[in-house]
Design a protein that fits this description.
This protein is α/β, with parallel strands linked by helices. Helices cover about 45% and strands about 20% of the residues. It folds into two domains: about 200 residues, Spore Coat Polysaccharide Biosynthesis Protein SpsA, Chain A; about 100 residues, no CATH class. It is built from eleven helices and nine strands. Strand 2, helix 2 and strand 3 form a beta-alpha-beta unit. It holds the Pfam family Glyco_tranf_2_2.
Length: about 300
């Protein structure tokens, strides 16, 4: 029986799936299984998966559904004591599983290990940028209520018994299902961090305004659910959580907009964040967003002239 089960949901992932699988095969920790959920792909994803020769890999095909449902289907096929999740367009550094397993074995009270992230700007592998390091360990419940510092769905290694204690991903969520899952885990289990950039996260250049709107809607729904379950002494954090969501939306509009409509949406979201939590004006990130907003607005105005 393998120690670690790796769950990979894949939907129309023909451009990236082979490299993603390869990053698992190159892990320095070898006692693992690879569970791929073909989530109703209509491109060459399944054919490419069938071309991979690896006895540790199993592929299960289902009709297309939400990513949360695909991950839960993957969990149902796993047998490992520890479970990791990897999106079909992300990659891992070769020692990711070994180091995360090591810190979990050193801290028997912890249920989840996470690492620092890189991300590819616009999905290009020649533009690799590190996320700002975070060092939250132990009881990280309040930190996760305020923001998703784990950053994406390809990061954590989690004990099976931790998942069994809180349940899987919320199948009703169309976005932010990983953050919602992490909050429920943090309410019951301690987290440990590997202080190293080990997750390579692709951010698509094709993100549309409608996608940002979807993320905002689902994130707001998540916050309502999370604070309904949160103890009374943490309710004061809700405005800060909402502000973080609007800061994130500001960033996405600035990143993917080249017209006044998108820039105005970014301005509106940033103003909402400031009104909810004025202290963000003292943070480096908010100041960067303000400068970015002004720069893009001036650029568009000059182009119009």
């Amino acid at each position: 029986m393998p120690t670690i089960s790796v769950v990979i949901p894949a939907y129309n992932a023909e451009r990236t799936i082979l490299k993603t699988i390869e990053s698992v095969q190159k892990q320095t920790f070898l006692d693992l299984e690879i569970i791929v959920i073909n989530n109703g792909s209509t491109d060459r994803t399944l054919k490419l998966l069938q071309s991979i020769k690896d006895e540790r890999m199993k592929v299960f095909s289902y009709r297309h559904d939400e990513a949360s449902v695909a991950r839960n289907r993957g969990i149902s096929h796993t047998v490992g004591e520890f479970i990791a999740f990897l999106d079909a367009d992300d990659l891992w550094i070769s020692d990711k599983l070994e180091m995360q397993l090591g810190v979990l074995q050193q801290h028997s009270e912890a249920g989840v290990a996470y690492s620092w992230n890189y991300y590819f700007i616009d999905g290009r592998e020649d533009t690799l940028i590190p996320y700002k390091p975070v060092f939250f360990t132990g009881n990280v419940y309040t930190q996760l209520l305020v923001s998703n510092f784990v950053a994406n769905g390809s990061n954590i290694l989690v004990r099976r018994k931790a998942i069994e204690s809180v349940g899987g991903f919320d199948p009703t969520m169309q976005a932010c299902e990983d953050w919602e899952f992490y909050i429920r885990l943090a309410a019951c289990w301690q987290f440990v961090v590997v202080p190293k950039h080990q997750i390579l996260y692709r951010q698509s250049a094709n993100t549309m305004t409608s996608k940002v709107e979807l993320v905002e809607r689902e994130a707001l729904k998540l916050i309502e659910k999370a604070y309904q379950a949160a103890p009374p002494e943490y309710q004061y954090l809700k405005k800060q959580s909402l502000a973080w969501i609007y800061e994130y939306c500001t960033q996405q509009y600035l990143k993917h907009s080249n017209d006044l409509i998108g820039i105005n949406r970014a301005r509106q979201k940033l103003w909402q964040a400031i009104c909810l939590h004025p202290q963000i004006l003292l943070e480096d990130y908010a100041q960067i967003l303000i400068r970015w907003l002004i720069k893009k607005w001036l650029k568009i105005q000059l182009r119009i002239l």
